[in-house]
Design goal:
The structure holds two protein chains of two kinds.
Chain A: H1 21-34, H2 42-55, H3 59-71, H4 76-96, H5 98-108
Helix pairs in contact in A: 2-3, 2-4
Chain B: H1 16-24, H2 32-38, E1 51-55, H3 81-94, E2 98-102, H4 112-121, E3 125-130, H5 143-149, E4 153-157, H6 163-170, H7 174-187, E5 199-203, H8 214-229, E6 236-238, H9 245-253, H10 257-266, E7 281-284, E8 290-291, H11 294-298, H12 316-319, H13 331-334
Parallel strand pairs in B: 1-2, 1-7, 2-3, 3-4, 4-5, 5-6
Antiparallel strand pairs in B: 7-8
The chains are: A mainly alpha, B alpha/beta.
Chain lengths: 110, 347
Amino acid sequence: MDTYYHPKDLGHFPDMGKEAPELWQKFLEWYTAVFKEGALTEREKALIALAVAHTVQCPYCIDAYSTACLEKGSTPEQMTEAVHVAAAIRGGSSLVHGVQMRNHVEKLSM
Amino acid sequence: MGLVTLLNSKSPLADSAAQRATLDALPIDASFARAVASAGHAPLRTRGVEVLQVNVGKRCNQACHHCHVDAGPDRTEVMPDAVVDACLAFLERSGIATLDITGGAPELHPRFKDLVVCARAAGRHVMDRCNLTITQLPNYADLPEFLARHQVEVVASLPSFAARQTDAQRGEGVFEQSIAALRRFNQLGYGVEGSGLILNLVTNPVGAFLPAGQAALERDWKRELARRFGISFNRLYTITNMPISRFLEFLEASGNLQAYMEKLVGAFNPATVDGLMCRSTLSVGWDGRLYDCDFNQMIDLGVESGAPQTIFDASVQGLTGRRIAVGRHCFGCTAGAGSSCGGTIAG
């Protein structure tokens, strides 16, 4: 079945460098540096990436960072908690916009 | 526990030739001999014998899903007395500094304590590859005290500091028993700074992925085992699962075999080749046959034909510089930071 997302397409990510090799190189260097151990460990950064992947709903990133989290030593429990953090922020973000709704309703109402 | 071995479930993969054929049949452009040649080892040879690793048999009180030995309670292969004696005699005459005892659960062997006592009396460093739960069996409750008395290094298997992952790999209830065993080892001074009693942990990934970086993971494990259970240990060794035996069966059944092999091959790290354990280890099978490593032993890849074939005619001179038997499974030891019985090889 044809779909917009194909798991094998992740392997073709470097093809994005074909038309703009300098930009691709800059992206790769920056990306690699971001995930190196710094004030945060590589494991912690992979957990953040996993949570963000769920927020941006990128199936490639979810596959890639599920593997990365396991290979950095996170447990499925820790990964699940990270996804809950993403979900809580998404849910909370919707809910907090209710204040805007309330403000607007208040302005219009008697 | 209570899992079935490949042999007794009559799996085709119980046959070591079938395991090798399965790996060789994968559509991957990969030759380990070619890979190590690119790292300056054409062919790969041993540099000596620094560790005598003796596999005393396939009997085990557990039957872990990833076991490369296909060990279990239903296995009957046990090293005969004559082979045990030959191992000790070789250790004595060779001057090899370290005896590494493995299995199965090596402590189930009736001569286990003999092996330890004789090797220690000869001044050798002795390592026991312990599954931890063996110490919780009534007849083996004195093992930790025995090991401590003889200052044996304990290398204990624990895939995760979480119960679910440990039990998923090693069997229901293993985690709880492992924690009880680790607490007992700690009480005796094992893993406690300044005691001189070494307790190292070994973790294999619980699935078709590579192990985490050893140094970072060790920091996490020390923190988590102390926080959750008050347990301390010396070093954490991360070991890659080899695509043989029961882990190979898991890879096939779960549809991960091709991708896992591609991952191992793609992660080949030339910097690991110098430190490969096969270059300095001699592995002895339960029947006395010699191998370059415990993995080769399990797929029946013996030492090269010109070298001594059994422990009865072993000599360090005859085994040094021998050509190492290699296959596609060997990519498991060279992936990423590399893997050995002592954990990471490079970095």
